[in-house]
Automatic annotation (TrEMBL):
PANTHER family: DISEASE RESISTANCE PROTEIN (TIR-NBS-LRR CLASS) (PTHR32009:SF160), TMV RESISTANCE PROTEIN N-LIKE (PTHR32009). Gene3D superfamilies: Toll/interleukin-1 receptor homology (TIR) domain. Keywords: NAD. SMART domains: TIR. This is TIR domain-containing protein. PROSITE patterns: TIR. It comes from the Eukaryota. GO terms for biological process: signal transduction. It comes from Trifolium subterraneum. Residues 12-164 form the TIR domain.
Length: 164
């Protein structure tokens, strides 16, 4: 992974932007992944779930990274902020060649792609509770489809160990 990350000729402030939005279990996984990446010598920006939707600092951190890792989980906590962040990550993948790597933490990639199962229920509840135009709703669905169609890593156990 680091060889493809380091091959870009653009000036970057970080190697990886780590994006996740989960109420519980995924936080530990994301923290462990962050630690493993930094131990490997990569500079990692993480979203920390406390920035507001469209926060320019977060969007700038995405653009300034060589790669973005998006962690989808079965306990996904839908938010406008996460979905806007996802759209920005995908845009960077298309326009500046940023590596976009989805990780599916205890969720099937097809559940994300098709918005079904628990992931789909949470997403549909989110859409129903927001005042969104059909266009906005469709853009979020398209972003989920695009991200989950990228080659990624399914992680089907919460007992993952990262080795040096």
């Amino acid at each position: 992974m680091s060889s493809s990350i380091s091959s870009s000729s653009r000036s970057h402030k970080s190697d990886v932007f780590l994006s996740y939005h989960d109420k519980e279990a995924c936080k530990s996984f994301a923290s462990d992944l962050y630690s493993a990446l930094t131990r490997a010598g990569l500079v990692v920006q993480i979203n920390h779930n406390n920035l507001t939707s469209g926060d320019q600092t977060n969007l700038s951190a995405i653009e300034a990274s060589r790669a973005s890792i998006i962690i989808f989980s079965s306990n996904f906590d839908a938010s406008t902020w996460f979905l806007e962040e996802l759209k920005q990550i995908l845009e960077c993948g298309r326009t500046i060649g940023q590596v976009v790597l989805p990780v599916f933490f205890i969720v099937n990639p097809s559940d994300v792609r098709r918005q079904i199962g628990n992931f789909g229920k949470v997403f549909e509840d989110f859409i129903a509770q927001r005042i969104l135009t059909n266009n906005e709703s469709m853009r979020y669905k398209e972003a989920l489809i695009e991200a989950s169609s990228n080659p990624g890593f399914p992680v089907m156990s919460s007992r993952v160990q990262f080795r040096p």
